[in-house]
Design brief:
- By secondary structure, the chain is an alpha/beta fold.
- About 40% of the residues lie in helices and about 15% in strands.
- It has seven helices and seven strands, in the order βαβαβααβαβαββα.
- Strands 2-1-3-4-5 form a five-stranded parallel β-sheet, with helices on both faces. Strands 6-7 form a two-stranded antiparallel ribbon.
- Helix 2 runs parallel beside helix 3.
Length: about 190
């Protein structure tokens, strides 16, 4: 009897990843930063609300030609924060004219995880949601989800973001939900 041993998959190399962590609680920010460091995330930018996050994203986009400034790869944001909510941040990112920002994966976290909050986050364009208090395992799972299983982005009246449907559905005929970046720009120019 031959026994085949399979090597476990290599661990993720997140050393080149930049995560923008938006959290108003100092304790949660410290805890999540420690988790991200344990995952070997290369760069962790932190701020306390959407207004600060928008400032950081604006500066990194303006200076991205500099070799000393890294682009943000993933945003992890709280939902309710004084000084700018996660909802406002998601709306700003999804409405941005720069595709490098507009298509950023966004992971929402909230202690208020009613179906209404999850649906609102999804409908504003969040890629994933996390329940507080969160574990390192759940945070790692959501980061892996946006890396391994990116959902296609769609443009619809009143919505731009990752496809809100999670089940695989085979469209009859052409799948009109998926649009290339060029098609989205052309569509927006017509509006």
């Amino acid at each position: 009897m031959n026994v085949t041993y399979h090597e476990p998959p290599p661990p993720y190399d997140l050393s080149n990843l930049t995560v923008l962590l938006v959290e108003d609680s100092e304790y949660m920010m410290s805890l999540m930063s420690s988790m991200l460091k344990a995952f070997s995330v290369g760069d962790i930018l932190t701020c306390k609300n959407a207004n600060e996050a928008i400032g950081i994203l604006t500066i990194t986009q303006a200076r991205k030609k500099s070799r000393f400034v890294t682009d943000v790869d993933i945003i992890v944001t709280d939902w309710l924060m004084p000084g700018g909510s996660g909802e406002e941040l998601i709306d700003w990112v999804r409405a941005h004219e720069d595709d490098a920002l507009r298509f950023l994966p966004i992971i929402l976290m909230s202690a208020y995880t009613t179906e209404k909050v999850i649906a609102m986050a999804r409908d504003h364009g969040a890629n994933e949601s996390l329940v507080k208090p969160l574990s390192a395992k759940s945070l790692a799972a959501r980061i892996c989800m946006v890396i391994d299983n990116p959902r296609p982005f769609i443009q619809a009246p009143g919505f731009f973001g990752p496809d809100r449907r999670r089940q695989e559905m085979v469209p009859s005929g052409e799948d009109r939900r998926k649009m290339r970046t060029e098609q989205i720009r052309e569509h927006n120019e017509k509006l």
